[in-house]
Amino acid sequence: MPYEPDMKFDIEQEGLLTLFKPYQTALLERLWEINKSARVGMNSGEAHRFLLEGPNKKSRASVIFFLNDMVEEGVLEYEERSGKGGYHRVYYPKMDRKQFAQYVVETITDKLGEVFPEV
C-alpha cells in the first residue's frame, strides 16, 4: 500500500500552519534555514533540543514520528550515522521551501480533481 500523506488543510491558519502543527512547522522552517548555503543535517536529538528552546515543546517521540513521516512524504531524506547507542538518522531537506510549495499545490490540486472530477 502506498504512503498516504497526513497533511490536514486548515483554512483558519496562516502559512505552513495551514498544513502542520506549530512544532512541525518550526522543524521544517529550521531545516530549510540551516540548509540555505550548505547541506546541514539534524538528528532527532538536535531537533528535540531546538524545540525545547522555544514555545513549541514536544516529546522526542513526536519529533521522530514527524521527521520519519516527512521522509515517507518525500520532503526529507536521511543518512544513517553511527553514534552513541548505535546508528542514528540524520535528516536533510529533500526539497527546498519553493519545491515543497509546488508539491503541496500539486497534491491538493490532484486530490480536488479526484473529489470533483466534473469540474
Structural notes for this entry:
This protein is of the alpha+beta class and 119 residues long. It has four helices and three strands, in the order αβααββα. It has helices spanning 22-34, 44-52, 60-73, 97-115, and strands spanning 42-43, 76-83, 86-93. The protein has a three-stranded antiparallel β-sheet. Helix 2 packs across helix 3. The protein is globular. The model has no long low-confidence stretch (mean pLDDT 92).
List the helices and strands and how they pair.
Layout: H1 22-34, E1 42-43, H2 44-52, H3 60-73, E2 76-83, E3 86-93, H4 97-115
Antiparallel strand pairs: 1-3, 2-3
Helix pairs in contact: 2-3
Supply the number of helical segments.
Answer: 4
Unreliable parts: none
Rough shape? globular
Order of helices and strands: HEHHEEH
Beta-strand percent range: 15-25%
Q: What is the average per-residue confidence, as pLDDT, rounded to a whole number?
A: 92
The percent range for helix content is: 40-55%
Strand order of the largest sheet: 1-3-2
Whole-number radius of gyration?
16 Å
Key attributes of the depicted protein:
119 residues, alpha+beta, three-stranded antiparallel β-sheet, 4 helices, 46% helix
Produce a short descriptive summary.
The protein is an alpha+beta fold.
